Amino acid sequence: MPEAYDPQEIRRQAITPAGSGGPMDLAMDEAETLEKTPGGPEGTGPTGKPRSLWSDAWHQLRRSPIFIVSGLLILFLVIIAIWPQLIASRDPLFCQLSKSQQGMQPGHPFGFDTQGCDVYTRTVYGARASITVGVCATLGAALLGSLLGGFAGFFGGVWDAVLSRIADVFFGIPVVLGGLVFLSVVTSSTVWPVVGFIVLLGWPQIARIARGSVITAKQNDYVQAARALGAGSGRMLLRHVAPNAVAPVIVVATIALGTYISLEATLSFLGVGLRPPTVSWGIDISNAAPQIRNAPHMLLYPAGALSITVLAFIMLGDAVRDALDPKLR
Amino acid sequence: MPELTKEAEEATPVGDGEPILEVRGLVKHFPLTRGILFKRQIGAVKAVDGVDFSLAQGETLGIVGESGCGKSTVAKLLVNLEQPTAGEILYKGEDVTRLSGRALKAVRRNIQMVFQDPYTSLNPRMTVGDIIGEPYEIHPEVAPKGDRRRRVQDLLDVVGLNPEYINRYPHQFSGGQRQRIGIARGLALNPEIIVADEPVSALDVSVQAQVINLLEKLQSEFNLSYIFIAHDLSIVRHISDRVGVMYLGRIVEIGTDEEIYDHPTHPYTQALLSAVPVPDPAARDHRERIILYGDVPSPANIPSGCRFRTRCWKAQDRCALEVPLLAVPAEFRLTEGPAAHPSACHFAEEKQVVPPEEKPKPQPKPKPQAAPDAPPDAPPGDEEQDAT
To answer: Given this model, what pLDDT does residue B135 score?
Structure first.
């Protein structure tokens, strides 16, 4: 070593590594990333269209097999909910007691229920009420819950305290007892009172999830960074917090959809949900459950239809959640 | 890059040496409360407890101190992410702590922040173009809509990233590249002051160098003033013109980097400097290490008098009674030497803790050619790889 050690010198070298003259190390930087994420559709040049999370998510969804399968399934269910006569020619309310609980027969592929009604026709016609209740109640609970929960989580303080206590009150209402009390005073024979009741009891669950994930998301530095730039609450909430907090809400909401359809069945079984002559899977499942050993086909078909519907929505929720996460692309 | 030239400069020209930012008696106390329904205050965490400094145009002020001394709170106060309990932050003579609404937004344009952790400071669900372009959406007067995309690409170019990366997401970048994106976002509004809160602490050592070099390059290009907060003393020395040492919410010593590093007079600064690793085994044997005992006192319960007295080997009765002021100590007041800089100690004295530099610090430093004694992690001529 001809030169004496100069600690300062060495320290400075650690900061300014040999050869990092500026442009060279930047070039290395770039070469490395190019290698890490090779071309493909990501490599749109400067002339390409500006892309956003939503357009990228849509681009991703169109190529996702899970989204295509669940989308087609939901499309099919919606079509038969609107026009059940497309695939079922009989009257769901035409029953012959002589055929009570009989199995499969030509022209009656799903057999007959206790009242002697055609199970196939009733399953097809039941889609309308069940899907209406399931989808509307889920949408209502998810919107109300994420709105109030997100608001409570984002603004905190008094808002949080008040909204959380209100949610706790609704959380504490027993479903069956509450249903008996609320719905027995309603005389309407449409699905809307049931939808309303389920939304009323369902939103606190979504609100808690939304509140929690909003609180987690708003602590991130990028929210602070937006605030330091001068962003208002609306921008911070919509652009930064909401997209990063929505995933758990989607998961819980799609799972809740199945619960809501079965809740409708429970309420119908108690005589306060949908009333005859409305046909729904829930009513049929409730009627079939005690007869499971004599005539399992009565339970199998409406329950199967319910399971497929729930599965389709869960898959859809999954695909949407994944598409909204750029890390999974 | 003509569109990145400073526009604000011609509006209010700042003379040489006149501070662009002045902080007076800055205090931030976080209340400690007890009770669920009826909260009553039982004390306060005194995160920042009377900080004064000034920053000139084009200058870099480094702030060092150990964890929990209030460095980051100072940064948040400067960019108005927190409201100070007391004190003034004067930007070109105007107290920004009293501003709100439009006036605050206008000041925010000129004071921007670079965050510590590049992994949490970029929204994972926004493209790089959206992240760097967001300042223009918040301040639409800075750039007309059709021009923004080109500006974002120019900014990417300025910080050394490929402008074609505009549609990528943050997770597709390494830590160093992410920090460049964060810096580009900070530069978007042509600020005059950048508050960098430990901008390289989360990065790999080799990448730290790239980011520091970039910050220095940008400073000379755009005449930026930096508040550079860090706990790595050697990095602060490398980038700073002046350095302030913080302890428990106060600045205990402030001066040029030569005054602080080569002629420290406050015992805390001396102890900090003696802990800097010396890469030379021969020199290491000769130096004196000052080992402090005990922990930093709780900022909720600050010692009386001098706040460093509980760990100071020079502490005497006077230290518990009298709060030392941040001023040039009496014994150095008449001397002209580098030891005559503000130091908040009753018993300030010079003590050499870091081996002196052989030559005056050249700025910027030419690369040493053929360094046989280079540390093994920085082989000569071999470019650093980003952390993967």
So the answer is: 92
Does any CB of chain A come closer than 8 Å to the CB of residue B79? yes
Which two structure tokens, joined as six digits, stand for B288? 């004196």
Q: How far is B382 from chain A (nearest CA, A)?
A: 6
A5 in contact with B, Cβ within 8 Å: yes
Do B138 and A227 lie within an 8 Å CB cutoff? no
User: If DSSP codes are grouped into helix, strand and coil, which group holds residue B87?
Assistant: strand
Between CA A117 and CA A123, with CA A118 as vertex, the angle to 5 degrees is 110
Q: Does B217 touch chain A (CB under 8 A)?
A: yes
**What is the reported pLDDT for B74?**
93
CB-nearest partner of B130 from A45, A52, A221: A52
> Any chain A CB within 8 A of the CB of B332?
no
* Phi and psi at residue B265, to the nearest 5°: -115, -15
**What one-character DSSP code corresponds to residue A293?**
T
In chain B, DSSP finds a helix count (H) and a strand count (E) of 12, 10
Structure tokens at B272: 């900090």
Each residue of A255-282: pLDDT tens digit?
A: 888 788 878 878 887 878 887 778 888 8
Mean pLDDT computed over A101-106: 80
The amino acid at residue B19 is: P
Alpha-carbon separation of residue B346 from B260, B315, B325 (angstroms): 17, 9, 9
Q: Which residue has the tokens 């709060």?
A: B323
pTM of the shown model: 0.76
- Report pLDDT digits (tens) over A39-85: 334 444 444 566 778 888 888 888 999 999 999 999 999 999 999 88
* Nearest CB to A52; choose among B127, B174, B381: B127
Q: Which domains does chain A have, with CATH numbers?
A: 76-84+119-328 (1.10.3720.10)
Which residues in chain A are closer than 8 Å to B135, comparing Cβ atoms?
229
Within 8 A of A217 by CB-CB distance, chain B residues are none
Q: pLDDT: is A14 or A93 the higher one?
A: A93
The amino acid at residue A17 is P
What CA–CA distance (Å, rounded) separates A259 from A287?
18
ipTM of the predicted assembly exceeds 0.90? no
**Residue in A125, A138, A77, A167 with CA at minimum distance from that of residue A277:** A125
Q: So what's the pLDDT on residue B122?
A: 93
B48 contacts B27 by C-beta, under 8 angstroms: yes
Residue B383 has what pLDDT?
40
Which residues have a Cβ under 8 Å from the Cβ of A96 and sit 6 or more positions away?
Answer: A112, A116
CB atoms within 10 A of CB B309: 22
Check CB contact of B204 with chain A, cutoff 8 Å: no
Q: Where are the beta strands (DSSP E) in B216-335?
A: 225-229, 242-247, 250-256
pLDDT at B107: 87
For residues B220-231, average pLDDT: 91
Cβ contacts (< 8 Å) between B113 and chain A: which residues?
225, 228
C-alpha span between A272 and B193 (Å, rounded): 67
Domain layout of chain B by residue ranges: 13-240, 265-294+304-357
The CATH number of domain B13-240, selected from 3.40.50.300, 1.10.8.60, 1.25.40.10, 3.30.565.10: 3.40.50.300
Evaluate if residue A13 carries a pLDDT over 80: no
Between chains, do B384 and A56 touch, taking CB under 8 Å as contact? no
